[in-house]
Amino acid sequence: MADNKFDTPEIREYPIIPKLQRDVMSHSKPFIAKESHQEPLGFPGELVDDWHDVAIKKMGDLQSKYRSLQVYLDSCVKCGACTDKCHYYVGTTDPKNMPVARQDLYRKVYRRYFTFAGKYFPKLVGATDLTKDVLDDWYSYFHQCSQCRRCSVYCPYGIDTAEISMAAREVMDTIGVGQKYCNEIISKVHKIGNNLGLPGPALEDTLEGLEEDVEEETGVQVKFPLDVKGADVLLITPSADFFAEPHVDGLIGYAKVFHEAGISWTISSHASEAANFGMFIGSYENMRKLAMRIREAAIELGVKRIVFGECGHAWRVAYSFLNTLAGPWDFLDQNYPIPQHICEVTHGLIEDNKLKFDKSLNDDMILTYHDSCNVARASRMGDKAGGQFVIPREVIKAVCNNFHDMSKDTIKEGTFCCGGGGGLLTDDLMELRVKGALPRMEALRKVVEDHGVTHMAAICAICKSQFAKVFPYYDFSMDQIVSVHQLVSNAIILTGQDDENDENDGENHPQQDIDEAA
Amino acid sequence: MAVDFFNNSEVDVSLEVNGKSYEVDEEGYLADLNAWDADVANAMAEADGAPLEDNHWEVINFLREYYEEYQIAPAVRVLTKQIGKRLGKEKGNSKYLYELFPYGPAKQACKYAGLPKPTGCV
User: Fold this and answer.
1) A418 vs B70: CA distance, rounded Å
2) CATH value of A35-185 in 1.10.1060, 1.20.950, 1.10.287, 1.10.10
């Protein structure tokens, strides 16, 4: 399997702007999608013969459809405010990973074909033809953007590189040049209902196993219901929650919260995925088709509420677009937010004193919190501005005694991407993922040194998997990343639970192993 | 591997073991689950520098059994629980599985077992 063919960046004492190294990441390209990944999404199986003309036509379509795209392409004044804001630039030092340079890969083609100056005086305005070399650069560098939108926070015009990346990926898909990771996943959701391709019977078996585990651990029968008609809440959660660690510990947390609050809920085998990869490839049609599964499941099961589990960009799609993609939701209970985030649910129950915790059960950890970019910069929670920052932290503080935030320019709206978002969480981009994690690793290292932080909590499936994978490159251990609802699960006292002292034997506190090992 | 979409002559990669050829994808996962045999698993492991021992085989065999029934690799909890039953409770955790398969039980063990790579946010 892949050995390290690259050096892990060194943690720097001060985060200064690195020296440029031209084209050092031009070799970074994800595996290309095969015909079997492309066609279920409505894209050609391989590069079409008239790719140049098809691409230019698609660019024109996108500009007319998304006014924002055209505004972003027209309004950059090259002020440079964004240049050092991208984690991939900081980690790789490749100048094409500066947000403005990434945008310009698209913008220079836009100028050539769609502006007066670019059509007649291309050299004067940096306009170029769409050539094979340009397309090659697109494939490389638009797959070095995790669509985290950090640059847009610092841009005086609010130019959103994420949207330009999405547009570029859609243009490439349209001419038959897709990325395997995203498109294979989307084709699985269309066919089976989730990113993993986890069929109903396997999901049922997995959930039954979790019921056994929780009962063994607590003595309480906590249900993980599947396809239960007439349940109040439909839980839409990333399929990683069924499959991977520490994700599954978060799922156990949601189940305990629902159980203790007496909320009837269900998972759907038809809509067994929160993550909507249609957004990563900029494809409205695919995003809508994926979102429609949620609507179909909600109607089929006759639920009253929809709650989303811990998933970053799922929450962006849910919070910002669900209504236009798959609404109207007039058949749901209008007294609850549509949709609602699991952190909002738990936070509300905590405020109403409906849950009992023993915070000392998390005393083996000192926590910090990683704001996931799509939650932080593309959505909100609760009914107050900044709720998406406050609510998860309030939940953590309600269940843990020890919490310290990382430096303020690396959290909340300024949060750094984990390095694996936006459809880049694939082994063929490991160098990029490790290097892109640098700013977050530096901020984490600082709170580890200053406050003795032992664990970082997150509410995004991608962040959790990414950190579990890249932590060892930076001398952290893979179990130092935890789910927020894993912390809830550790501390919650269920009615009728066995004496909590009995169960403090390690199995339900996997993090103890690390502390002992550390 | 370089990506060359201008010469899309779909590069089929194959793995030669004892004179037999197996079709694999870009990352070395078998294209056809049914083409798998013990030789190919051993060859993959040796190429990674860690020959398979009995406990590896317990995992690989369980993965194949589970896949046959459910058409998917088992979730990590399902796997750890089963390994705990087969090899003893102290081995039923992901820490032990990572000792066996340092590149990740889900991905590395699936590869040796001839299963497709798990996809998604994992």
Assistant:
1) 32
2) 1.10.1060
Place of tokens 């993993």: A196
CB contact under 8 A, A242 and B75: yes
- List chain B residues with CB under 8 Å of A479: 95
Q: How far apart are CA A455 and CA A24, in angstroms?
A: 33
Phi first, then psi: what are they for B21, rounded to 5°?
A: -110, 130
B121 catalytically annotated? yes
Q: Cα separation of B56 and A9, whole Å?
A: 33
- Sorted by where each begins, the domain ranges of chain A are 35-185, 192-404+453-517
Say which residues have a Cβ less than 8 Å from residue A304's Cβ, sequence separation at least 6: A232, A233, A332, A333, A336
How confident is the prediction along chain A (518 residues), in pLDDT tens digits per residue? 445 689 999 999 888 899 999 999 999 999 999 999 999 999 999 999 999 999 999 999 999 999 999 999 999 999 999 999 999 999 999 999 999 999 999 999 999 999 999 999 999 999 999 999 999 999 999 999 999 999 999 999 999 999 999 999 999 999 999 999 999 999 999 999 999 999 999 999 999 999 999 999 999 999 999 999 999 999 999 999 999 999 999 999 999 999 999 999 999 999 999 999 999 999 999 999 999 999 999 999 999 999 999 999 999 999 999 999 999 999 999 999 999 999 999 999 999 999 999 999 999 999 999 999 999 999 999 999 999 999 999 999 999 999 999 999 999 999 999 999 999 999 999 999 999 999 999 999 999 999 999 999 999 999 999 999 999 999 999 999 999 999 999 999 999 998 655 544 444 444 444 444 43
Residue carrying the six token digits 């059994």: B65
> For chains A and B, what is the number of CB pairs under 8 angstroms?
117
Contact A197 B72 (CB under 8 A): yes
The strands making up A340-341's β-sheet, listed across from edge to edge, are: A265-267, A233-236, A305-308, A340-341
Q: What is the full DSSP assignment across A222-262? A: ----BS-TT-SEEEE--THHHHSTTHHHHHHHHHHHHHHHT
Q: Domain map of chain B by residue range?
A: 13-112
Least CB-CB distance to B121: which of A31, A132, A195? Answer: A195
Nearest to A275 among B1, B8, B121 (CB): B121
- Token pair, residue A436, equals 């892109």
Largest CA distance in chain B: 53
Homologous superfamily in CATH for domain B13-112: DsrC protein, C-terminal domain (1.10.10.370)
